[in-house]
Amino acid sequence: MIQKPPASVGQRLDEVDTPALVLDLDAFERNLAALQRSAGGRVRVRAHAKTHKCPEIARRQIAFGAIGVCCQKVSEAEAMVEGGIQDVLVSNEIVGAQKIARLAALAERARIGVCVDNAENLKDLRDSKAKLDVYIELEVGMRRCGVPPGEAVVALAREVSGNLRFAGLQAYHGRAQHVRSLAERKAAIERAASAVRETKELLKRNAIDCPIVTGAGSGTYMFEVESGAWDEIQPGSYVFMDADYARNEWAAPLPRFEHALFVLSTVMSRPAAGVAIVDAGLKASSVDSGMPSVWQRPGLAYTRTSDEHGCIEGAPPPALGEKILLVPGHCDPTVNLYDWYVCVRNGKVEALWPITARGAVY
């Protein structure tokens, strides 16, 4: 059941019930513009909707120049298409009769792409009769799914036929996104680019056209752009940023995006001097990439958490009932905890956007 929103349009931020997921619209819009400005029309942008899970945000990304979105699960793709998005790549392998049938149904309503790394899975997709764009996932350092560069890619590409169209390669190096050193991130993408070029050349020698190479994330995308090996980029977290991304080294050619996503919390207890307990714990902010940070309150740190409580320590301590903004440690799984974005501009609630793909993990 979708929960009632914790706010209403026109309320002041300090009147919003908590915990609430707050989107700073000015910072969000500047992030959209910064990405488009930095990519400069040199590649296509296919924004990653696994970050925000919200068709309203996807529509704004498209308005700023994205050609469509990608996502990780069929249920996310269903939410995007239901929300009016007409070009969706499921940048993941989709296995199983139920999921493939749902993917086929979506392909009757929108342009749908999917990744493969296995001939048996490819056969199942072909047997579905659905018209799908198929991208072979290339292993470029993620150590997860994918086909290693070489003849195996050629063999799999030759199997794409019938109702399936070989659309190109998926080459995403997710492990590189949070490498702190800019130089090390760049080196990782240079290695990935070599694998991409090697594979494209091999496909060309075998008379197989490779229309698109897609991939890249918020922490590296300009290195993919400048390499010339990618035709399309898939950044997601750039719209929000989080505390973990803030720990990265940032410099040209990568712009510094702004924090736009926050968890609004309330101080519910003051058990000791220099200690405040807020109502935002594990069920309000993901800590898999570290604790949230306390926004614009120097001297305060979010130090520990449990299901419904978070501990803030330092000076000067906030007062009982005071509202505190937290920057999530990891934006993607934090978003998945909420039904609504409370969209704020100049300290007032301007809009409420439903997170319709919340819980879309199947």
Keywords:
single chain; 362 residues; alpha/beta; Lyase, Ornithine Decarboxylase, Chain A, domain 1; 9-stranded mixed beta sheet; 8-stranded parallel β-barrel; 10 helices; 28% helix; globular
CATH topology of the largest domain: TIM Barrel
Shape: globular
In this structure, how is the largest beta sheet organized? Answer: 9 strands, mixed
How many DSSP E strands? 17
Structural commentary:
The structure is a single chain. The chain has 362 residues and is of the alpha/beta class. It folds into two domains: 13-22 and 257-354, Lyase, Ornithine Decarboxylase, Chain A, domain 1 (Beta Barrel), CATH 2.40.37.20; 41-240, Alpha-Beta Barrel (TIM Barrel), CATH 3.20.20. It has ten helices and 17 strands. The strands form two sheets. Strands 1, 10, 11, 12, 13, 14, 15, 16 and 17 form a nine-stranded mixed beta sheet that branches. It has an eight-stranded parallel barrel with strand order 2-3-4-5-6-7-8-9, surrounded by six helices. Helix 3 packs parallel to helix 4. The chain is globular.
Please write out the topology.
Layout (H helix, E strand, L loop, with lengths): L19 E5 H15 L4 E5 L6 H9 L4 E4 L2 H9 L4 E7 L3 H11 L3 E6 L2 H9 L4 E6 L13 H8 L5 E7 L11 H24 L6 E4 L5 H7 L4 E2 L9 H4 L14 E12 L2 E4 L14 E2 L5 E6 L4 E5 L8 E5 L3 H5 L4 E6 L2 E7 L8
Parallel strand pairs: 1-16, 2-3, 2-9, 3-4, 4-5, 5-6, 6-7, 7-8, 8-9
Antiparallel strand pairs: 1-10, 10-11, 10-15, 11-14, 12-15, 13-14, 16-17
Helix pairs in contact: 3-4
